[in-house]
Specification:
The complex is a heterodimer.
Chain A lengths: L2 E6 L7 H14 L4 E5 L7 H4 L10 H5 L5 H4 L1 E2 L6 E4 L12 H14 L2 E5 L6 H8 L3 E6 L3 H17 L1 H4 L6 E9 L1 H5 L6 H8 L2 E7 L2 H9 L10 H13 L15 H6 L3
Parallel strand pairs in A: 1-5, 1-6, 2-4, 2-5, 6-7, 7-8
Antiparallel strand pairs in A: 3-4
Helix pairs in contact in A: 1-12
Chain B lengths: L25 E3 L5 H14 L1 H4 L3 E5 L1 H5 L6 H10 L3 E6 L3 H9 L4 E2 L8 H18 L7 E2 L17 E3 L8 E4 L3 E3 L8 E4 L3 E7 L2 E4 L9 E6 L3 E4 L2 E4 L12 E6 L2 E6 L2
Parallel strand pairs in B: 1-2, 2-3, 3-4, 6-8, 7-9, 8-10, 9-11, 10-12, 11-13
Antiparallel strand pairs in B: 5-6, 12-15, 13-14, 15-16
């Protein structure tokens, strides 16, 4: 039975799609058959980050409407044969999503896949609601910034009250924190919230801290999930996140942002 | 009375119930002479016409009934509407007046008077709290029902206490018809309401409203006060009005002579 993961945040621009692409790739690289679904209908982005935008034929809405089968719409990733992408429709809007339709697609995917990663749109409207409704696990992506923390807190409230697990009184959705775009120097100077500040409000299990890194933007532009950039701190951080999610114990890195002398000298990224 | 915590089913696409707290002026009547009432109202309104224009209004009949004077509700409502006010409720009415209000489609607010008015008021109280909870979009809460004793010295409410162990996140609203006991944090942007006392054995960052049906004996207790707003029986303070000295401390809040007293629990 597949495990359904929602990557959510409430706020936009915090790194949901980057995270979805990275962890889906990370899970697939470790041998788990993984599908990643773009729920941002009308603002299709995931295919760009995954570098498969030129291979989109059918999309999520086509499958919901019965115009294509799931297998027709799934795009196999060119870097990893265990990873499949289900792109959003660019020409429709969120109203094209329905709870039954999404449930049906997820049920079908669950037969074949080990993990299904749902990339939620920002906001708390229909797309975001349906992305989290069927989730077993939630990756709450948060920036060390007060409005992002507030919005994440709101999403956690919705997860604990409006998800399928909450409605059916089942074991609650497992909630994990991913602190992204973390800049240790700015935390030190007091410009950015620290991990403790964030945890004081959210108190969640921390899956990882993703440091602010130039490699994220260049990876996005190149259409290669940043986790494949093993030299970058962000890539390593996502690798740790996937390992921790799968139950490995790894110490948290990048909290203090200590840069070695040589790296400082040569401008390590 | 059982706990009136109810989870609304997901009727996302058609409608949604939400609840809100409104502040409305209360018109306390001391005389049953309609003409005199109208005249003094006109005078008052002239002082602040903008404030009163189309204002909702609650008619309070308690003083009148104390003096044993009766008033024709239909007539006073007519007068109020004529001068541009919108009566939206009555309180402190006797049985006959309440019935009249019903006929006029005007809601009845039952003021809880600790000892008197037992039997007749009771049914309305239940109605009242049920309505309140139905209006709410109460978030799922792990509310258990301990065979709890309301705190001995303060019979704030006859209903049982509601215990919540999960964190109350931003945007969630909790309504308890008796006391409300919360073991985890209450986030900024959350709203907790109780007809009785509120206890938060953690950090209180959201809004806390105790004694929402007018119980002035209700109190709020919390381990770490960082609330956005605190209110007891309608008297409120926002965080801006709170003295910074009471912040981040274990605090109790109660009403004394219509003033909110915020005191460190030493």
């Amino acid at each position: 039975m597949a495990r359904i993961i929602v990557v959510t945040s409430g706020k936009g621009g915090v790194g949901k799609t980057t995270t979805s692409a990275a962890i889906a790739m990370g899970l697939a690289k470790r041998g788990h058959k993984t599908a990643v679904i773009d729920f941002d209908v009308g603002l299709r982005n995931l295919d760009l980050i995954m570098g498969c935008e030129r291979r989109v034929v059918y999309d999520f809405i086509n499958v919901i409407n019965g115009e294509a089968s799931v297998n027709q719409a799934l795009i196999r990733d060119k870097n990893c044969s265990q990873l499949y992408i289900l792109p959003a429709s660019q020409t429709r809007d969120k109203d094209a999503l329905s709870q039954e339709g999404v449930g049906k697609v997820l049920d079908e995917l669950a037969k074949e896949f080990d993990y299904i990663v749902c990339d939620s749109p920002a906001g708390i409207e229909k797309g975001a609601f349906l992305a989290l409704y069927f989730a077993d696990d939630a990756f709450v992506v948060t920036n060390p910034e007060i409005s992002s923390v507030r919005d994440s807190d709101r999403m956690l409230g919705i997860l604990s009250s409006k998800s399928r697990r909450a409605e059916k009184n089942e074991e609650p959705v497992r909630e994990y924190l991913l602190l992204t775009r973390y800049d240790a120097d700015r935390v030190k100077s007091g410009e950015m919230l620290s991990l403790e500040d964030v945890q004081e409000i959210l108190s969640l299990q921390l899956l990882g801290i993703i440091p602010e890194s130039k490699s994220v933007l260049s990876a996005s532009n190149a259409g290669i999930p940043v986790i494949l950039d093993e030299k970058s701190e962000a890539g390593q951080a996502y690798t740790d996140v996937v390992a921790r999610y799968l139950g490995e114990k790894r110490p948290h890195r990048f909290i203090d942002g200590k840069k070695g002398f040589l790296r400082k000298l040569f401008g390590g990224k | 009375m059982s706990i009136n915590l109810q989870k609304m089913s997901n009727t996302l696409s058609i409608l949604e119930f939400k609840s809100s707290t409104f502040f409305a002026p209360i018109l306390i009547l001391f005389s049953h002479d309609i003409a005199m009432i109208e005249q003094s109202l006109q005078e008052k309104i002239q002082l602040a016409p903008d404030f009163f224009r189309h204002s909702p209004l609650i008619i309070d009949l308690r003083e009148l009934n104390k003096q044993g004077q009766d008033i024709d509700l239909a007539e006073i409502v007519g007068v109020l509407r004529r001068i541009g006010l919108f009566p939206v409720g009555i309180r402190g009415g006797n049985e006959q007046q309440n019935r009249k209000a019903h006929a006029l489609s005007i809601p009845i607010d039952t003021v809880r008077e600790p000892d008197s008015q037992a039997a007749a008021g009771n049914i309305q109280k239940q109605e009242n709290s049920r309505r309140a909870s139905e209006e709410l979009q109460v978030a799922a809460t792990d509310s258990t029902n301990p065979s709890s004793k309301p705190i001995a010295d303060m019979p704030a409410s006859s209903a049982e206490a509601t215990l919540i162990t999960q964190p109350i996140r931003s945007g969630q609203r909790i309504y308890a018809s008796g006391d409300l006991i919360i073991m985890s944090q209450v986030s900024a942007g959350a709203e907790i309401m109780a007809e009785g006392n509120i206890h938060v054995y953690n950090t209180l960052r959201g809004r806390a409203l105790a004694g929402v049906l007018g119980n002035t004996a209700a109190r709020i207790f919390c381990f770490d006060l960082q609330a956005e707003l605190i209110s007891i029986a309608g008297d409120y303070k926002t965080s801006e009005d709170l003295n910074k000295q009471v912040y981040n401390k274990p605090i109790q809040i109660y009403l004394q002579d219509h003033a909110l007293i915020i005191k460190e629990i030493a």
